[in-house]
């Protein structure tokens, strides 16, 4: 099972997916960029009937469980000599059904994210420039697509610097929320737990990052011991920021005034400067999520269909045209709203991506190629895995019954 080089480090092979070296800080901020996106902007609206305590509780719980699930993917990846994407790992360690389910989850989640980004960015840019929402989405897409086309390294570098700026903006806006004339800290203590389960789905969506892990493992293949600490640091930063955004929004605005893209009402409640700053943050948040998610979707398609290379322009450009064209069309046509995209993805894709890595790591420990320098140890014990299965499996059942009208929707 062991396969090591003279430096006692695992040897990983490049397949159709090119290995581009990343630094730990680039990996950290790729996680931050992916996590702070449409889910972050939709949490306040989705939780407006349940209240801040409900969304804060679920953001902590789902953050921990998603990190554990990401660790499962990380260990399975590090046990596999050839660098492959999540569907490829599922195929090897779960079978073809697992591969198809994971691929569908990646596609559903990615397209749902892109729809949410196009909706949100289109609305914000339209409010800034006075153009149509569709034109706003196109204006957002052009630079984001260019960075994505340049590859994983460019995505990591841009995401790193934008994430630094986003952290600063969020901290300024949070402090300003407490000082605003409309501030009412009492709103933070109002809750209705009847809406707890559907709100969990949106919290789970905010953290979905399992499919990003193989890409990040490729980036740190030269120093795999730093992968898990980088994922942890990134996830902690994401959790703090995700909690601050609805907190600031609830402080300055009553529930019935919260918009689907939280930064719009958040900024307006504080002042014109804050409206501008909050929505610059929102655009950066969507940008830094758009690029790694699109890149991961491209490499998943290449891996799933066994195409030659994810860096070949003849392959990369047509795939980008399809994966960006579909959500852009759905946004411009108004067929799918921002929060619907977030909820649908959070329910089904998050459940698949949280549960299947359990089977992947269990089998990877038996049949993997490499004994890695790092493992997730007792985090892969059966009680932890049972909690993940029960909680995420339950959300699917709730969503189905809620859609049929037997249980309350979240909003």
UniProtKB/TrEMBL annotation:
Keywords of this entry: Cell inner membrane, Cell membrane, Membrane, Transmembrane, Transmembrane helix, Transport
Gene3D superfamilies: Amino acid/polyamine transporter I
Record's bilayer topology term: Multi-pass membrane protein
TM ranges: 27-45, 51-73, 94-118, 124-149, 161-181, 232-253, 273-294, 315-332, 338-361, 382-401
GO biological process per UniProt: amino acid transmembrane transport
One GO CC annotation: plasma membrane
Compartments in which it is found: Cell inner membrane
Coiled coil regions, renumbered to chain: none
UniProt keyword annotation of Transmembrane helix present: yes
Protein name per the record: Amino acid permease
């Amino acid at each position: 099972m062991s396969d090591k080089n003279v430096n006692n480090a695992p040897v990983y092979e490049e397949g159709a997916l090119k290995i581009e070296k990343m630094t730990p800080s680039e990996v950290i901020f790729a996680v931050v960029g992916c996590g702070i996106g449409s889910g972050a902007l939709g949490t306040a609206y989705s939780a407006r009937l349940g209240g801040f305590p409900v969304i804060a509780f679920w953001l902590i719980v789902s953050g921990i469980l998603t990190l554990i699930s990401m660790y499962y993917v990380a260990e399975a990846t590090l046990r596999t000599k050839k660098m492959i994407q999540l569907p490829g790992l599922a195929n090897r360690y779960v079978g073809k059904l697992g591969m198809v389910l994971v691929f569908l989850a990646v596609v559903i989640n990615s397209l749902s994210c892109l729809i949410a980004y196009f909706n949100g960015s289109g609305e914000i840019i339209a409010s800034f420039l006075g153009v149509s929402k569709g034109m706003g989405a196109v204006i957002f897409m052009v630079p984001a697509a260019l960075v994505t086309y340049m590859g994983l390294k460019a995505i990591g570098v841009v995401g790193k610097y934008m994430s630094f700026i986003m952290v600063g903006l969020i901290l300024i806006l949070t402090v300003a929320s407490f000082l605003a004339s409309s501030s009412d800290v009492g709103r933070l203590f109002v809750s209705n737990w009847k809406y707890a389960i559907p709100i969990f789905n949106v919290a789970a969506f905010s953290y979905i990052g399992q499919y990003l892990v193989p890409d990040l493992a490729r980036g740190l293949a030269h120093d795999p011991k730093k992968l898990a600490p980088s994922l942890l640091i990134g996830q902690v930063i994401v959790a703090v920021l995700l909690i601050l955004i609805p907190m600031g929004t609830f402080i300055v605005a009553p529930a019935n005034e919260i918009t689907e893209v939280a930064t719009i009402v958040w900024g307006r409640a504080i002042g014109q400067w804050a409206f501008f700053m909050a929505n610059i943050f929102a655009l950066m948040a969507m940008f830094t999520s758009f690029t790694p998610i699109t890149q991961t979707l491209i490499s998943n398609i290449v891996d799933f269909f066994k195409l030659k290379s994810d860096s070949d322009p003849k392959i990369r450009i047509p795939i980008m045209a399809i994966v960006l064209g579909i959500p852009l069309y759905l946004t411009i046509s108004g067929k799918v709203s921002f929060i619907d995209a977030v909820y649908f993805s959070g329910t089904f894709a998050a459940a698949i991506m949280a549960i299947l890595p359990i089977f992947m790591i269990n089998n990877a420990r038996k049949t993997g190629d490499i004994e890695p320098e790092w493992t997730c140890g007792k985090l892969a014990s059966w009680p932890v895995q049972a909690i993940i299965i029960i909680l995420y499996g339950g959300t699917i059942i709730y969503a189905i019954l809620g859609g049929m009208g037997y249980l309350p929707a979240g909003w």
